[in-house]
């Protein structure tokens, strides 16, 4: 058993309380490898932002749980070396079962998500409660989910999103004791968050998505005043990256994300954590595709992963400063 406290990590409790008071959201960035971790830490140190490093089931399979744990320990030391002891959480994203959540808690995670959103309500309550009991005994915080996002949730593919029902949230959070709640208000995972039919098109062919269901968010806030809310599927899918990827040989049609102004508005509300993964994938891929097209003779991974890491860092700094509003709050 390795406690997150030995690694210099923190849970989400204080972070969310401060974010709620300050009207900003904590960035939750997914990582699978060293360059992503470095870019996240560099960006968060430079902008003085707290951060949640999140690891999916797929990331655990790709990178190995012990390597990821030691990368999180390395992230803590790296931030100090760069000059700012920012608070860092290591979080399990879309935990699929009690067993996986327990394994993470026993191996240095300071926060876990148990995603029972595809289960019948009572089963979601039961598995979430079981995770909360184990987690809280180890001072680890728990994110749960109610409602179904469109797109792909790790292994779970949902055809259609189902908004969270505000009338269920009090019952769910009081029965389970979870520390934060992921809700469905129109965001979804991946680079195609809406079908072209759901969008309108500008004169130059750019897809404009329908707005998020802020009325549902407001109704949830009324039911649960001061309770930390989480938004998954919150990449904006920047067109500049989509264009670079397509210009240099990629094919990613019908890409559309959540407009940044809507995320900024959400971050000012009870939304305390905003999950971003796809935008990082796009930033790295755009930089690498451009590099290969412009430098066909290069083959040292450092030469193409270096610019990809720089682009990622730039993108995360922009999120912290202009979208989530977390910049400057590391030492609150
Ligand atoms: O919500 C899903 C995240 O973007 C993680 O994706 O399962 O491919 O690592 P992944
Ligand atoms: P995106 O696919 O919009 O980046 O969402 C990531 C996410 O929700 C991770 O849990
Ligand atoms: Zn998610």
UniProtKB/TrEMBL annotation:
Quote the PROSITE patterns the UniProt record gives: ALDOLASE_CLASS_II_2
Provide the GO MF annotations for this entry: fructose-bisphosphate aldolase activity; zinc ion binding
Q: Which reaction does it catalyse?
A: beta-D-fructose 1,6-bisphosphate = D-glyceraldehyde 3-phosphate + dihydroxyacetone phosphate
- UniProt lineage: Bacteria, Pseudomonadati, Spirochaetota, Spirochaetia, Spirochaetales
Please give the organism: Treponema porcinum
Q: What CDD domains does UniProt report for this protein, alphabetically?
A: TBP_aldolase_IIB
**Residues that hold Zn(2+) 1 according to the record:** 94, 189, 232
For this entry, the protein name equals fructose-bisphosphate aldolase
Catalytic site: 93
> Which biological process terms from the Gene Ontology are attached to this UniProt entry?
fructose 1,6-bisphosphate metabolic process; glycolytic process
Which positions are annotated as binding Zn(2+) 2? 115, 145
InterPro entries per record: Aldolase_TIM, Class_II_FBP_aldolase, FBA_II, Fruc_bis_ald_class-2
Which Gene3D superfamilies has this protein been placed in? Answer: Aldolase class I (3.20.20.70)
Please state the pathway this protein functions in, per its UniProt record. Carbohydrate degradation; glycolysis; D-glyceraldehyde 3-phosphate and glycerone phosphate from D-glucose: step 4/4
Q: Describe cofactor binding as the record notes it.
A: Binds 2 Zn(2+) ions per subunit. One is catalytic and the other provides a structural contribution.
By sequence similarity, the record places it as follows: Belongs to the class II fructose-bisphosphate aldolase family.
This molecule's function is given as: Catalyzes the aldol condensation of dihydroxyacetone phosphate (DHAP or glycerone-phosphate) with glyceraldehyde 3-phosphate (G3P) to form fructose 1,6-bisphosphate (FBP) in gluconeogenesis and the reverse reaction in glycolysis.
Q: What is its EC number?
A: 4.1.2.13
Sorted keywords for this record are: Glycolysis, Lyase, Metal-binding, Zinc
Cofactor(s) the protein needs: Zn(2+)
